[in-house]
Specification:
Layout (H helix, E strand, L loop, with lengths): L2 H69 L23 H4 L19 H18 L4 H16 L3 H15 L3 H16 L3 H12 L8 H14 L3 H14 L6 H18 L1
Helix pairs in contact: 1-3, 1-4, 3-4, 4-5, 4-6, 5-6, 6-7, 7-8, 8-9, 9-10
Length: 271
């Protein structure tokens, strides 16, 4: 065998090993690049998600703030303006005033940022709250807006319409504060719609909660009133009596004591 061939045979295994290592390194390098790319894309995606979430919450917060500003806006009606004569300080009596009627000044202009009535203000706020709740339902601000919308509906004497909104907040918030507050709101709405039995069950479930964020004395008062509505005097007395005995410094103590005395007198009179 020639010398060159023997040398070639000796070099081939080395060349193969070197080539194999180079191939592995190249593959590893490509793998590392791929992994880094995936990580970078993932971080970009996460950053984009949080940016998008932050923008949604910011916009929802703006809508909620606008609605809350509406709720505290002043009420100024034309009847609040007292007509005066052209002579400063001297009142002029129109034929309508002489007959006991008060006419609104013809030049009355509704002040910016005010409302002519409570109903008008609540209706405007309701639209704003529902917009925030419907556009951003998964944000804390949207959830707050839906709770407030339900409360406004009750104030507008539309308790039936408030019920599904309270239930939505309860489903989304669970045992968190707004979930428990919505349970109380739902119970109140049910009382207003003649569904006292279901309301009592809700109040009792709140009483049995180990993680109640709603003051128990407040729940007891509402439970007592609910029992009264359905003629359950003994149960009502028991609820009010618990406030008196267990919460002597409660803001409801005086009211509860009056209810206890009234119910005892009623019971004594019927026995």
């Amino acid at each position: 065998m020639r010398r060159e061939e023997r040398q070639h045979l000796k070099e081939n295994p080395v060349a193969k090993i070197v080539g194999h290592l180079q191939s592995r390194l190249n593959d590893s390098g490509r793998l590392i690049v791929v992994l880094i790319s995936i990580i970078v894309l993932g971080l970009v995606g996460i950053a984009g998600f949080y940016t998008w979430t932050g923008m949604n919450e910011q916009r929802a917060g703006q809508l909620l703030a606008e609605a809350m500003a509406t709720l505290v806006a002043p009420i100024v009606s034309s009847e609040d303006e007292e007509p005066t004569s052209e002579i400063e300080g001297e009142e002029s009596a129109s034929p309508e005033q002489e007959n006991g009627a008060v006419s609104a000044p013809e030049d009355f202009v509704q002040p910016q940022g005010s409302y002519p009535s409570l109903e008008a203000k609540l209706e405007d706020a309701l639209g704003q709250l529902l917009s925030a709740a419907d556009e951003y339902p998964s944000t804390p601000q949207g959830l707050t807006a839906r709770y407030q919308a339900a409360a406004v509906l009750v104030a507008l004497e539309r308790a039936d319409d408030a019920v599904p909104h309270y239930r939505q907040v309860m489903a989304a918030a669970g045992d968190e504060l707004y979930g428990q507050m919505s349970l109380m709101g739902l119970a109140e709405a049910l009382l207003l719609t003649g569904q006292a039995s279901e309301a009592i069950l809700l109040f009792e479930s709140q009483m049995g909660s180990l993680e109640s964020l709603v003051p128990i004395d407040a729940v007891l008062m509402r439970l007592g009133h609910a029992h009264q509505l359905v003629g359950q005097s003994d149960e009502a007395l028991a609820a009010f009596n618990r406030v008196v005995e267990e919460f002597p410094v409660s803001i409801y103590y005086t009211d509860a004591l009056e209810e206890v005395e009234t119910l005892r007198q009623f019971t004594a009179g019927t026995s």
